[in-house]
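Cross-posting from the modeling subforum.

Setting up a comparison between two proteins and wanted a second pair of eyes on the formatting. Protein 1 (sequence, then C-alpha cells):
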Amino acid sequence: MWSNTQVKIAQLAAICMLLILSVQILKWISSNEFGIEASGSRERKYGGIEMSDTKKAVLIIAREIFRDEELFHTQAALEAAGVQTVVASSKVGICRGKLGALAETTVLVDNLKADDFDAIVFIGGIGAKEYYDSPAALNLAKDADAKGKVVAAICIAPRILANAGLLESVKATCYESETEALKKLGADFQPNDVVRDGKIVTANGPHAATNFGKTIAQALEAD
C-alpha cells in the first residue's frame, strides 16, 4: 500500500504532466490551423542555440497583429528548402497573429545583426506599421542590402523597405493600401503576387506567402 505522501506525490506528478500536455496541444491547435507544425518546435533560438552552417533567415513580425499565414507559410517554405529560421520582434516571447495563431519570438529586432543572416524577411499584417519609422528595422534593412543579403517583405511590409530607400527604381509589389506610397518612394511597382528584383523579394499578401518563401529560397540559392 502507498502512504499518503506517496499518493500526493503521484497526484502532483500527474497534474504536471497534464499541464505540459495541455500547453503542447494548444500550440499544435493554434498553428495547425494553417497546415504546419507549431513554429516554436521548428525554431532555432538565435543566441540561445548554436546555429548551423546552412542558410539562415530571420523573419520579423509585429509584436501584435502580424499576419498568421505570412509568417507560418513563408517559414514552412523556407525550412522545406533547408533554410534555418529565427523569428524576431520588438518583444521576446509569445506574439499573437491577426487570426489568433501564436508565434514565439526569441530575439529583439534591436539586437539583430545583418552579418548573422543570409536573408532579412519582414512579415506583414497591420501591426507591421510599427517598423515603418523604426531606426532598428530601417538600419537593419539598409545594412543587409549594403552587404549583399537577401531582403524581403510581404503585404504592407514592403513599405519598410521603401522607407529605408531600398526600392528606388527597383521592381516591387505590395498590398494595395501601400501601392501609391511605394510609387512615391521610387519603386517600379508591379501588379504581381511575388516580385524578385536581384536580392529584393516582395509579395502582396497572405495568399502569396508560400510562393514568397520559395522565391526567397531561390534568391538564397543564387548567392
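Protein 2 (same layout):
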Amino acid sequence: MEEQPTSLNSNLESPIESEFKSDPTWKEISLGAVVDSLKAGVSVNSDDRKAGANEVGILKTSAVTYGTFLADAHKAVLAGERGRCAVSPKKNCIIISRMNTQELVGANAYVNQDYPNLFLPDRLWQLEVKRDGSVCPLWLSFILSSPKYRQMISDSASGTSGSMKNISKPSLLALPISPPLSPNNARSLKFCRVGMRGFRSKSH
C-alpha cells in the first residue's frame, strides 16, 4: 500500500522541530534572507516512461511529495523538447511543489547530489541557499517539511480552483525562520553532518 502524506492538521512535532525549538538567542528572519535563488522549471512534452540511455527526464510532482527526493519519479522527455529543459536538480538544493492540492502544495525534498539528466517542470521550484554558512540546507529542508511549516505554506496558497492551489515566491520567501546562528550554529552543523551521512548511506 502506498504511504500517504502526513496530514497538515497534525499537532505532532517533527524530530527536527523538537531538537531546534525557538531560543532567545536565535534571531527570527525571513526565509528570503538565506535564499540565493528560487528557480522554476519548464514543462515539456514527454512519454509516460522513464528516460533511457542518452535521454533526459522531466520530474513528476510526486518526486517530492513524501519529503524524500525520488529521482525515479520522472518521465522521458521527447527528443524535440530537450532544448527547452532548463533547471536540473542540484546538490544541496531543496525542490518545492509550488502548485498542488491544498494538502500537498509546498511539499519539498532535499537533493543530495546533482542530477544533470533530470529537469524540473514549471510546477516545481528549486531553492538554493546562500553559501555564507548562515543556514544548512538539510536543516532547512526538515524545517520546511515539518507540519507547522507545511500548514503555514498551505495557508498562504491561493487559487480559485477547489483542487489546485498555488504559492507565490513572495509568500514563500516571507516565511519566518529562526536558524540556529553562531555560536549555536554548531548544533545545526552537527545535525547536517549526521544527516548527510544518512543520505550517503541510503544512496549506496
